[in-house]
Design goal:
alpha/beta; Purple Acid Phosphatase, chain A, domain 2; five-stranded mixed beta sheet; four-stranded mixed beta sheet; 8 helices; 12 strands; 16% strand
Length: 269
């Protein structure tokens, strides 16, 4: 069995089909991992969602911020943003089936056999892997509940911006979500900055990429993540595998074979 991890698709279904041809994907023998953001901004989010769901439970997807946004819009607690391409899902006959499947996906996945961690944006610098897994499960429990709209309605916000074990309730869950699905830059103490989204070269002096925070507790973990297209799939830090290569922005869609780290890419368009 070969495992391939695939970066943010964001509704680019044609490119996904091309990438699967490029890696000669065999559904009977191979397993796919997805870094999240299956949907939005690209033209065929509904087809992506249906295709990945139909693959079956052995294939793994972690939730990204755009996936959570879809859930919030669909449950009526958030408005669509300019540039959203979610209408086809929201009007689909199988909408509820797709949404129920999506909200049961994890925020973090750890594979004991390969010792790879899969998440959308990364892990909070202060979290050990065991802690990160437990915290992700707290939020997953809320999403899987009978009334996810009550949780989704309070999910948005930039505060609290620093992890504290004493956080409780929605502030605790919002902080977990922001680290796992929205994080790019932090301060040296691990505090989140969610306002600056530009290039690393132009960042404010006090900000650093999350993976460069001193004494990062999970620095020895092998972490696969997406979310950050501006990285172009590259980091200088060891044990990190950035796979969002900006397909929806006209660049390419990338897969990585876990066995040897080899990457495969197809151009957008």
């Amino acid at each position: 069995m070969t495992i391939y991890a695939i970066g943010d698709i964001q509704g680019c279904f044609v490119e996904l089909e091309k990438l699967l041809l490029e890696i000669a994907f065999d559904q009977q023998k191979d397993t796919l991992w997805f870094t999240g953001d299956l949907v939005n901004r690209g033209p065929r989010s509904l087809e992506v969602l249906r295709f990945v769901k139909a693959l079956g439970e052995k294939h793994i997807i972690v939730l990204g911020n755009h996936d959570l946004h879809l859930l919030a819009v669909a449950y009526g607690v958030q408005q669509q943003h300019r540039g959203d391409t979610l209408d086809a899902i929201l009007h689909a006959e199988d909408k509820q089936e797709l949404l129920d499947w999506l909200r049961h996906r994890p925020l973090l996945y750890y594979d004991k056999a390969t010792q790879f961690v899969l998440t959308h944006a990364g892990l909070a610098p202060s979290w050990r892997l065991s802690e990160a897994r437990a915290l992700a499960q707290e939020v997953e429990t809320m999403l899987k509940g009978d009334s996810p709209e009550f949780f989704l309605a309070k999910m948005y916000g930039n505060q609290p911006d620093h992890w504290d074990d004493q956080l409780t309730g929605i502030e605790r869950w919002r902080c977990i979500i922001n680290y796992l699905t929205r994080m790019r830059f932090c301060y040296a103490d691990g505090r989140l900055d969610l306002s600056y989204k530009g290039e690393i070269a132009g960042k404010p002096n006090e900000l650093i990429p999350w993976f460069d925070v001193p004494n990062r507790a999970n620095a020895n973990e092998k972490i696969i993540f997406g979310h950050w297209a501006a990285l172009g799939g590259k980091t200088h830090a060891p044990h990190l595998y950035a796979l969002d290569t900006g397909c929806v922005w006209g660049n390419c869609l990338t897969a990585m074979r876990l066995d040897d780290g080899k990457r495969f890419s197809v151009k957008c368009g």
